[in-house]
Amino acid sequence: MATHSASLWKPRAEGEKVSLDALMGLRIQDVAGSYTDREAMLYALTVGLGRDPSNAKELPFVVEHGGLRTVPTLATVVGLTGLTQRAGLDFTKVVHAEQELVFLAPLPPAASLLSDSDISRVVDKGEGKGAYVTTRTVVRDAGTGRPYFESNSTILARGDGGIGSAGGAAPPAHEIPQRQPDAVVVFQTRADQGLWYRLNGDRNPLHTDAQAAARLGFPAPILHGLCTYGINCRAVLAAACGYEPTRLASFSVRFTQPVFIGETLTTELWLDGDVVSFRCRAAERNVVVIDRGHAKLKD
Fold first, then answer.
1. By the 8 A CB rule, do 116 and 151 touch?
2. Residue burial 136-163, b: 16+ Cβ < 10 Å; e: rest
């Protein structure tokens, strides 16, 4: 499990700038990591599974008796390499824009891992507008070499526009069907949701400290984007997979608005064979917080 140094959230030196060549040249290999069933169960709890202990379909994700199941999006908090944090970007102005996971094999309840990362794409929006930076990470079993997943994580570095683009154009966004959803899953985030989720490793004070949130223009702490991501994975597991995690082949979203802790999340899902489309709203404000959601299913 990775932890996030508080130094990441300090302003960059005046006039300091990252170079495109430096970004595209970043590589890191064979980063060792591990997790146990404790971390797997903790992650499941932090994204809402097991909240109702009488739900027999969710209990196997949070209790090891009979064989523990892992939430596929556990992949977002294991096998991290910290590559982007080495890139010299201004992390006080970074927001998570998109996240994709491609599942190559089911994550076991516990594992030792090796991870490789590089920067696969930079899409420059221009000076003062920021740049989209995509990190690709492939994670494999440390003993067998079996690949578990590929993670493609895109951030908007708002303080780093004007550096130029590389790696090709971004793929087109997934289109949401123009009909009524086939299923709707409602999830009430708890007042302490951010306090629970930070135990997975992301201790950015933006999610716990009102003053830190105010400095970035938010009226209150916001929920981790990857917590909302995991909550939506729970919705897809419930509505489209019968809680069978091995059915997920890939899972991707675009983050569009922050979630304030305590809000109600309403996920609308469209089921079309092996494709699940979804989007998520913060019900109290009626704003879309996750859009262009796309999950590919296996038989």
1. no
2. bbbbbbbeeeebbbbbbbbbbbbbbbeb
pLDDT at position 14 is: 60
Amino acid code (one letter) for 13: A
* Each residue's pLDDT tens digit, 27-85: 999 999 999 999 999 999 999 999 999 999 999 999 999 899 999 999 999 999 999 88
Q: How far apart are CA 147 and CA 104, in angstroms?
A: 6
Structural domains of the chain ordered from first start: 20-170 (3.10.129.10), 172-299 (3.10.129.10)
Q: How far is CA 289 from CA 31, 188, 228, 256, in A?
A: 32, 14, 9, 5
C-alpha distances in angstroms, 9 versus 94, 215, 226?
9, 12, 17
**Strand locations in the chain (E):** 27-35, 94-103, 111-126, 130-141, 147-157, 183-188, 248-255, 264-272, 275-282, 287-297
- pTM higher than 0.85: yes
